[in-house]
């Protein structure tokens, strides 16, 4: 059905782009920078959504929906946030098209239907949401507000790549309001932890939890928590962020509450989000030169059954066996597809399911009928074995659990092997050019040093890890004293 | 917590607006015509989504996601569709803001960041989707394509009302591609039936299935199936539509396939959608002067338990009983909330849960502790009874089923009592002005007659019911011969 993928060593970036398209995950659209998420890719995203949504609700959050548009006057109210996003805003200026008098059959913007105030298509929703919260909050009894929204957002990026950086993307954005600084900080850290648990346990991707430096923070935040993952090419990917917004938005939108002592104060805020970018992280962490490798938790089909037969009679016998297996698997909530299409040969089916990352493949042929066996192939290790039909569902259930764990362990081993402590800037540059990955180095805490390192190496500080131990040292660049190491890397 | 609602007889429209806001379903936002869907309203919408999504998947559909924006040149490709929506399009013309040189701290559209081609914010997605399908379809093997999308859409309506007509709304839109006309027609009818089953069984709202007349059809459709419901004020509400699009979009976007005989033909299409408008139908079908009345299937909390106590000791005893009830209800997947807030008096809690339409209220007081009973109150009938604690979960389970059925029956009786056969235009006008509801009348089949009736009465043909029997008669307006009755009504 498709030629082989470019290999990762040959051209990692090309491998990624080809894989996304050939595995039917997504494709570019007629709109610059906007993608079409195809049914197979969307089914994976739906599984992520369902699990995250469950976790959000379990931690006391409710969903709601706020407008797509932000009037310019609200958008500019929180200055840093506005400044951070102004350069990549899609702006609605008119509300009507009309027939173009010069071009029959064509339309043009109706010059008389110009909006009095331009509307920004939300790049993030703090402004419209805090303008709304203003009316919802009077006293401490109205707090906390713990709301999440699943939505599309638009950031007019100049260089786009499917899932990793697109002009429109899908995400969730949590927006919470609290009585105290402590509560807001705790919420921001809690949600960063929720993300870490989700990405590690569900997506089988190890992450490092940390804080962003000031220059890498979300525009309008006082502190940004993040989870950072490592891709197979040695580049880091920010998988999720959770922002402590202090009272910045409360001040910008004048959101005050009366506390238990009857005093007025501005409300404390957080916001946090993950996006379809996680699809990129998923692909680049686990996949190989044969295509996608999906952890069982995220696979739309966890098992595929393929019959090999020479005549109708054999097919019927095999189908009977397959139906029995499917029934048992479904009773264990394992998703399974029987691929008995007669328009494709087995080899083509193998290739397709391999490309699409189905974790387990069962092949049933005439020999298997005789021996009461099936052939079981693992997508992640590309290993095959002959397995008894008896207790097959139990075998598969435990194998799927094992795959989920082993995929995480493999990614963790790779990640841990790619964290390198360096002491000098020469070492820094050498490691970055040869091995890549995270570089753990002392930093003097200044933006100047951060900027220079970035200019000279393209590496940025991915995070100040939360679990770092205090350790005296000298900045890898300026040689000034430093109290802890931070993680540098080139990043997506 | 809130003053009484305006009554329905006093001012139906005001009653609706107040109810939506006071029951915490939605509110107007700072963006003209766009609403904020609040957590309680969104929880109801999520229940609708989950059930519809399940039904779509059961009928073989998959979800996907297409861009928010439609380049103008694609938007105008299908002429009728473009003409139908051009007047209400939000149009993105620029992709950047900059500091306004004349107004410090303010932003303005960057005149140098004008898009070469304007982008229409999707009012519906046929254009962008058929432009995509073009690349997905070569032969009959690629068909059918059965895709649904959950999305936000924007139609710049001049007069808006929460849920019923908003500039931005949430919906799902199915877009399918088929080999034959027969298949496409069958799909359009199937999905209209799915909508009917959902709205009747899940929302407890009776509907009439029918076809739209040519002038009421979706712009670009050859036939529009619909389901029509009747609101308590005697006005009709279109609850869902399913369009047979013929080959119109295939021709506009040049989407051809090679059939089994090796011949090329244009692909046949359908599209179908329901939206957050259904929330309006839900509210206006069942609610009363005390507030929202929710069918158990859609209630975020199906049961609320309220303790009445004089001291901490009593509260503790009541809480023990309540916890036991909750455990049993949850094991039956019945959602329940224990409202033990000490910041509100019981009366205020009763009013709030009544306003928010919780189907069943359990009150536990000191007397109940003595007698092993609880007080059970139905929201739909406003009736109360003392019920034994023994087997309470079973009692509640069957009562919830009963409420669901009785709410449907009540709405059906009302609807059926408001379908009036008329033979003369005087009768037509009189019924419309006095009783309202659906008027079943003969019609000569011409748009002229339809238009004149609309001009003179504001009533439109809601549908040509699918189950109508052929019956000779004379058009209620023109007195020309007619073969069947159609349903007229004033409509939302």
UniProtKB/TrEMBL annotation, chains A, B:
SUPFAM superfamilies in alphabetical order: C-terminal domain of ProRS, Class II aaRS ABD-related, Class II aaRS and biotin synthetases
Compartments reported by the entry: Cytoplasm
Q: What protein name is recorded for this chain?
A: Proline--tRNA ligase
Q: Which EC number(s) does the record attach to this protein? A: 6.1.1.15
Instruction: Read off the InterPro entries from this record.
Output: aa-tRNA-synt_IIb, aa-tRNA-synth_II, aa-tRNA-synth_II/BPL/LPL, Anticodon-bd, Anticodon-bd_dom_sf, Pro-tRNA-ligase_IIa_arc-type, Pro-tRNA_ligase_II_C, Pro-tRNA_synth_II
Q: What is known of its domains?
A: Consists of three domains: the N-terminal catalytic domain, the anticodon-binding domain and the C-terminal extension.
- Asked if the Swiss-Prot or TrEMBL record annotates the protein with the keyword Electron transport, the reply is no
Tell whether DNA-binding is among the UniProt keywords.
no
Q: Which family does it belong to?
A: Belongs to the class-II aminoacyl-tRNA synthetase family. ProS type 3 subfamily.
The molecular function terms of the Gene Ontology recorded here are: proline-tRNA ligase activity
